[in-house]
Amino acid sequence: MRLLNTLMSATAIAVAGAAIVLGGGALRAQDSEKTTWSGIYSEAQAARGATAYAENCSACHGVTLSGTGEAPGLAGGEFLSNWNGLTVGDLFDRVRTTMPFDRPGALSREVYADIIANILKFNGFPAGQADLSGRSEMLATIKIVAQKPGAAAANFAPWPQPIEHQVSRGAMLLKASYIISPTLMQAMAAPAADPNGYPNPYKTDTSFFKLPAGRTMGSSSSVAVDSKGNIWIADRCGVNSCSDSPLDPIMQFDARGNFIKAFGGGMFNFPHGFYIDARDNIWVVDERVDGGKGGTVTKMDQNGKVLLTIGKAGTGTSTHDTFSEPNAVLVAPNGTIFVSEGHTNDKISRVVKYDANGKYIKEWGTTGGGAGQLNVPHTLAMDSKGRLFVGDRWNNRIQIYDQDGKLLDSWKQFGRPSGVYIDAKDNLYVADSESRTNPVIAGDRRSGYGHNPGWKRGIRVGSARTGQVVAFIPDTEPNPDRGATSGAEGIWADKNGVIYGAQVQQKAVVRYTK
Prior knowledge:
Strand order of the largest sheet: 7-30-29-28
Number of strands: 30
């Protein structure tokens, strides 16, 4: 289901208080005018719309409304600037007459209104008490206003860079920036009343990967996809450790799940973090130090040749060039390397920055639960703006930093993050493999492991730009309180939005498709 690529272009987003001259007249905001900021839909309607969108729209427009292929996005800067100044009636009619792509107009007016409510909610417009009408003539009186009335232009930040638009009502070109208020961003990033209530538009395939004869999948937190669509998995040698195994833990599969090759036997104790960089090099984090191995980050080519090692195998200390419990590695587009360390709660918790040759630059992180502190920084990801997302697992949150360690934001709406991945469109995928009730007992440091009452394990999908969650794939474990982990721990998604989840407890790598 997609909107036509001939979406009418409208006025660009204007700063508060400015007037846009159009064909000799002036458009000025009126306090009495009903707009998208007037609470024109209900929360219940938006929830229905999220389900209807997942069933009828997400295949073309994406789970996070960011667009896929030729289908344009239904959220964000370009969408808002295209529709700013038009009416909700205009948007309703456009959606109703072009969607679903293969059967326009097939849904009821009420369902289309529900989908519009979901789009409005996703773009940060507030809910009210009453449902949005399904009548075009009533919706035509409600203006789409991208910027919150009364917000000062100085309090807004650009996202993305300025773009040029053609105004369909006035035949003029304007240049503008997409601007989001910090208040709006915080509202969109707030946890929902039911963090497990999002729709699940995905189908689960637990038997996609075809292992060679005699080989079974072991525990894994490591899966990634290279630029050619091959899927790479580092399992723990058929069990949950490679310490005493001759098996090759790093396995390559083609896009159909057929086994290609494996390597890495005898190199690692406990493959944990896993990353494929822009040049398709394979990075493996060996978290466990034992027997002269482990505590390293290893870069290899796709034939298993070692290109770089950070850390000294088997040392078990944490210095500028050694690790005791490294968790994850990420390579920025410019080659800068980030490693997170600290797998045991209340011990060392830090992020270490290296140049492309593995030379130490700096580090940050003190152990704790305060702003900017870390406790088990289990996973790393980076968005299109270069912000570093750190899965601060013991604190049940994602902490967002710039590349020098300045804290930018902290999000709790994605659950307890074991794995985090961000794709090229800033769709955010978060694997929660540990949330459970498990109460905290005073004086018992290991009690309360996974303590995150009200949150179910599973994969939450949303936007790295706004922080909004739009989908939830629940874990299949019926009684998560009986074990420390289940479901996906490692996570990756390919360019088509297919998700791969690497599971420790179930000893599987699962494929999720829409």
